[in-house]
Amino acid sequence: MDNQQIIIRVATPNDKIYSKIITEEMEASAKARGTGIAKRSPEYIEQKIDEGKAVIAVTGDDKWVGFCYIETWSHGEYVANSGLIVAPEYRKGGVAKDIKKKIFNLSREKYPSAKIFGLTTGLAVMKINSDLGYEPVTYSELTQDEAFWSGCKSCVNYEILMSKERKNCMCTAMLYDPKDHYEPEETKEFFKEKSKGLERLLRLKEWKFFKAFTKRDKQGNDNNSGGGGKLRSIFHFFHL
Question: pTM here?
Answer without folding.
Answer: 0.73
